[in-house]
Amino acid sequence: MSDLLTRNTDDNGITTLTLNQPERRNSLSMDMLDALSQALTDIEADGATRVVVLAASGKVFSAGHDLKEIRDQLDSQAFQLALFNRCSEVMQQVVNLSRPVIARVAGVATAAGCQLVASCDLAVAADTARFATPGVNIGLFCSTPMVALSRNVSRKHAMEMLLTGDMISATRAEQLGLINRCVDESELDEAVFTMARTIAGKSGHTLKIGKGAFYKQLEMPLNEAYAYTARVMAENMRADDAREGICAFLDKREPEWKDS
């Protein structure tokens, strides 16, 4: 792995990716985005990973894009477009990854850093964490972070964050639905990895089917969503793990997943 990003996989198949540039506030520079993209590509091809935890070193989860990098390229519209497109691609990689992704947020997550949290399937934050989309304060509206944010919280709450640029607490983020849980800072790892282990104990094949279907049906009208998910469930029933899971439940025993 790059020095920008560390990777560790434990015996439960939980892979922790850690943004590791605290001196730069774990900014999503082009290099950091490339490192994260490569890590996600590697995990997709990796049979050992069942759940991904996305964490960060230091007191800032991610401050978003590297403003110094942007300032150095202020006259290059080509670079700016490439950067924002690259970031959008990485966010979609998180969503499209066949494994569940849990954000472990121990510090501040702003702008594209907040976007990254919103793009993860689940998020657990310490009660000391804070969140914002503050681009409006520097004349650069958080338009791409808006995509993930508006798909996680209600329209008016998203607009309030985007239009004011104000920082919100982890408690408020939980109330809005931006994160799943706000826990005491001392209990963050326990909360994150208990959740990760629970999910890792499920059928990997079933999780892949379910995650993909969840995001796809969200974009459909109600009748199309039901028709699509009925087909998904019928196809899911043909899987070895579905048959094993049903039999194990009826036999009152633990299932033995084949991930197929």
TrEMBL record:
GO terms for biological process: fatty acid metabolic process. GO terms for molecular function: hydro-lyase activity. Keywords: Fatty acid metabolism, Lipid metabolism, Lyase, Transit peptide. SUPFAM superfamilies: ClpP/crotonase. It holds the Pfam family ECH_1. NCBIfam families: PRK08139.1. May play a role in fatty acid biosynthesis and insulin sensitivity. Belongs to the enoyl-CoA hydratase/isomerase family. This is Enoyl-CoA hydratase domain-containing protein 3, mitochondrial.
